[in-house]
Amino acid sequence: MIKRLEVDGVPAVLAPTSGPTHAGLVFRVGTADEPLARRGVTRLVEHLVTDGLGTDGQQLGATGAEHTYFHMQGSPAEVAEFLSGVCAAVRNPPMARLATVRRLVQGTPPDRDPLPMWRHGARGFGVPSYPEWGLAGLTEDDVREWIARYFTRENAALWVAGEEIPEGLALDLPSGERRAAPTVTTELPVTPAYFSRTGGTVAWDTVVRREARAAVFATVLERRMMSDLRRRDGISYQPHTEYVPRADGTARIIAVADALPEKQEAALGGLIDVLAAMRAGQIDPDEVSTVVKLTCEGLRDSELRGARLPGQAFNLLSGREVQTLDEALAEVRAVTVEDVTEVAAAAYDAGLLMTPPGSSADWAGYTAAPEMSEAALPGRVHRGRKDRGLRLISGDDGISVTGYGQIASVRWDECALLLAWPDGGRRMIGRDAVTARIEPTLYRGADRVVREIDARIPARLRIDMPPRDRVAIPQPEAPHGESRLAAWRARWGPYFALLFYGPFVLLGVGALVWLLVESVTERRFQGQAVLGAVGLTAMFGWLSLDSVVELRRRWAVRRLLRRR
Amino acid sequence: MLPAMLPRQSNLDPAAAYPKITDLRAALDAGDWPACRELLDASEQAERTYLITAVSDEKGLEDFLRGVLRGDPGDGTAGALLGRHLTEAAWDIRTRVRAEHVSREQFVAFRAGLAEAERVLVDAAARSPHDPAVWTARLVTARGLRLGLPEIRRRYGRLAEIDPHHLPGQQQVLQSLCTKWYGDAALTYEFAKEAAAAAPAGAPNPVLLAEAYLEHSDEVTDLDRVRAELREAAMRSVWHPDFRRTHGWVRTMSTFAMAFSLLNDQEAASSLFRALGKLGSRWPWEYLGDPAATIEKFRARAGGDT
Lengths: 564, 306
Description:
The complex is a heterodimer. By secondary structure, chain A is α+β, with helices and mostly antiparallel strands. Chain A folds into 4 domains: 3-113 and 120-161, Cytochrome Bc1 Complex, Chain A, domain 1 (2-Layer Sandwich); 193-368, Cytochrome Bc1 Complex, Chain A, domain 1 (2-Layer Sandwich), CATH 3.30.830.10; 380-472, PH-domain like, CATH 2.30.29; 494-563. Chain A has helices at residues 41-49, 76-91, 98-107, 115-120, 140-150, 212-232, 264-279, 285-305, 309-317, 325-333, 337-349, 447-456, 481-521, 527-563, and strands at residues 3-7, 10-15, 21-27, 61-63, 68-74, 156-161, 193-196, 201-209, 240-245, 250-258, 352-355, 367-368, 380-383, 391-394, 398-403, 406-411, 415-420, 426-430, 435-438, 462-464. In chain A, helix 1 packs across helix 5 (140-150), helix 6 packs across helix 11 (337-349) and helix 8 runs antiparallel to helix 10 (325-333). Chain A is elongated. Chain B is mainly alpha-helical. Chain B folds into 2 domains: 17-164, Serine Threonine Protein Phosphatase 5, Tetratricopeptide repeat, CATH 1.25.40; 184-306. Chain B has 16 helices and no strands. Chain B is globular. Chain B starts with 13 loop residues before the first helix and ends with a helix. Residues 1-7 of chain B have low confidence and may be disordered. The chains are: A alpha+beta, B mainly alpha. The A-B interface holds A 232-233, 235, 262-266, 268-270, 272-273, 276-277, 279-280, 282, 359, 362-365, 554, 557-558, 560-561, 564 and B 73-74, 89, 92-93, 103, 105-106, 109, 113-115, 118-119, 122-123, 125-127, 129, 141-142, 145, 147-151, 153-155, 157, 161. Chain B: It comes from Actinoplanes flavus. Chain B: This is DUF4034 domain-containing protein. Chain A: This is Insulinase family protein.
């Protein structure tokens, strides 16, 4: 039975456990709160406040998208000492250790989930797709500011799996206010969508309502992937899914099908088929009952181990009440095949698929997620050096970089991050995750654009990067003109051939007719002239034959296409 | 002109040997889907796939079948036929010439058409996962959409689970394994040999060896071995007492006949020409030009003049 308490003004949940005491302190802050230019600050704080606590190498904290927590399992005294120590460090961070801790944090970069930026852009829940560029430049003040905003009594919750609140536990936290979870934004205009990317896996994610039946769906999906992709087809070794509930009442479901490079196309096809089958309601009722049973067993087991407590503490922070085991069990038991089918259909419609490089999923009804901007912004145009196909445009609204059918536009007021290199190279990332690479070496008079960017983008969005290798700085190159010329020739060649040879053919025919008419009217047959005219006609006719055949083929195709 | 000078030509219409095709076309023309279903559901699996393929070029099927599917989205037969029909339409745009003679616009429209077909088939496979005609159709779209050999093998795996000797599907896999698509002669032969050996005696499947040879005849050097191999295949198939003159038998025999003709095995070719009588098949003879004329030429050469 979970008890609701309050410890030093921090809401808490307490329940007995079979093992040693296990307790944790959670704050409502995570990577989704980090502006892209501060990406990494939460993890830095997490490591800074646990620095010197516990034994070396012990995992004492974790930073998620919405929550950051610190936890310890041991005797009540150890637990009390650790959590009190965390609170003391939050109140008085060991800034002398900042540089050292920063290096440790930089040395253990988190796994970057590639999907979120495609769905959420370069902010909020999309931030985990990006590197922690901000770490290097974070100052003591930045860290203090972040702590003051999020690591407060009002923004914390406690869970304790044990007989009672450990003696001597003091949560002496600074005061602040509850910070609501960031809203979930989306940059996908159409779903289901796909993008392709290098990497060892095929992956899919979706957003559904946060409900027991959605969690059941995620497990049914995993078992189906296991049975189809691994046991039947042998294309994926460890396919799995994950169900991540969020504070706003939605949940993210992720499905990953790992595969060897030579099997990735099959993994994609297999995953697409599994998702389509579930959407079509091809769900085995026995599977659902099995999953319901397993989920209930899992819940009971978690209850015994106190493993349901962290989730309940997270719930307190988003204003939800504690859910008893019986309530949770009842919710899961009520899930039917129809429920799972309904979730499957909703999940399918909101899906985002990551395909292997060079593959697409348009053939299965997925729309390509936008990779670039729809239009270039108005402004002053700087043409490319050597390659006049490239353009850099700077205007009142923002920056555009265009060339070879690609457009990257970032508006001044929608810039999420500016990366600046000492050599003048700039990279602007828009909130929609479109990246404009401004390489002044490639354009005429681009120094002026760099100055404009530096003046327009506020310092808080700017990260100064270390100097680049000379080879990393792009140099202007002449466009590959040869292929363009060849394409032009292929397109217009037949017309020119006809234009040039055609008149000769007509001339030859004309001469022939005239000679024949003359031979009849004048009764004079000029054999040599006729032979010459025939030869002329034949020669130029033969020369233009290929063009005629080619053009006729084109017309036939055009008619065929029009008929469609 | 003297009528006697006209070459006697084979009847290349598959319906000539197999009237079920005519019945099915009639039912489709009449818009009588229950009749179509009755005819198809009564056929054995490979026959059903064969029939669906045979009538997929029928005009104006799309609206009709989409209507059927609206009424019953789970009708795998309608899904398979619509998928096959859209695939045919896409291939008409691409035309059967080699890729370098196909324009960009053609490729774009071809791909769009195939994607349309595949979307129908993804849904059909989701709802009727045990329908061999759907998986066979998906082997064709996978090839045209360049989904890769691993995906083609996965799809064939699904088909083989349902019917391990599904010749129409095996023929599609064989095409994909050819040099002209994604494989080579060795892969093609390996697949053909395996499928031929696994099939029961008298089954048409050993014809895959003849197809493998026809697709790579210019790469074959050891003609005697190939000839012996093909004779053995024919013994287990067209020359076997259990060989049935059912769906597709003309094409099977005709394919063997062409392979033997090209291998200069006149005796074998002539026996097959005799068995075929006036019947013939467009494929694979069209590889050599006008099929009717080519068949006559080789029939005369084989001396199978009856």
